[in-house]
From TrEMBL:
<dbReference type="Pfam" id="PF08241">
    <property type="entry name" value="Methyltransf_11"/>
</dbReference>
<keyword id="KW-0489">Methyltransferase</keyword>
<keyword id="KW-0808">Transferase</keyword>
<dbReference type="InterPro" id="IPR013216">
    <property type="entry name" value="Methyltransf_11"/>
</dbReference>
<dbReference type="GO" id="GO:0008757">
    <property type="term" value="F:S-adenosylmethionine-dependent methyltransferase activity"/>
</dbReference>
<dbReference type="GO" id="GO:0032259">
    <property type="term" value="P:methylation"/>
</dbReference>
<dbReference type="InterPro" id="IPR029063">
    <property type="entry name" value="SAM-dependent_MTases_sf"/>
</dbReference>
<protein>
    <submittedName>
        <fullName>Putative methyltransferase, type 11</fullName>
    </submittedName>
</protein>
<feature type="domain" description="Methyltransferase type 11">
    <location>
        <begin position="78"/>
        <end position="126"/>
    </location>
</feature>
Amino acid sequence: MTEKIIGLTEWFATPPGRYLLDWEQERFDLAVADVFGFNALQLGVPELDALRANRMPHRWLAMPEGDAPLPEAARVALVTDAAALPFPEASLDLVVLPHTLELSADPHQVLREVERVLVPEGRVVVTGLNPASWWGVRQGRARAMRRLGLSSRLYLPEAGDFIGPGRLRDWLRLLSFEIEGEAYGCYRPAVRTDKWLHRLRWMDRAGERWWPIFGAVYVTTAIKRVRGVRLLGPAWKPRRVPATAPVPLANRR
């Protein structure tokens, strides 16, 4: 009997899915709270309000065509292709990508589009599932067994491919992004019930201390750098003009 494969939206409603969303929501709040500008964009995963802590006047939620229905939240929403964004060059100050790259058929092109629409010194925040975690190892093993024709239950949704944090850093640097920060989370094992997730909550503290890079999910923040461009801050203090010293004149007879 073939087990029903659940989609990403259904998986987010499961106990491990809610556990993951809670951690990511907290991290997005921290990452975007102090990013200033005028225009911000979230690409995908409407279950997260990744821009709720940001104070930019214009914030959009973009969803791929045919994806999950848009939420009823009071956010400006549009349907678009992440690899061909309907924004002019250098028009956005912030772009957040919650699992957008690993769900995309062409993640390189998505990143190129993000680089195109970001202003110099603009920021991108990316979250992804870590293949070097207990969740990633279990998912990889289940997929390998299925390819061999053996029955195995997937822990994560079938859709999407893992993009490790190291690969992501390399891709960003090739596009002249500078890595600003990286964090990992969700260290509890691949269990399915609220009961066991609650019992194993101590592993989050232990993981942050003893095996920090093996969290099930990671968040990476990067800044778009452009050679020859330097943003000038406000002149908080007026420049002082040195007073002209008096010049003594010799007496002439």
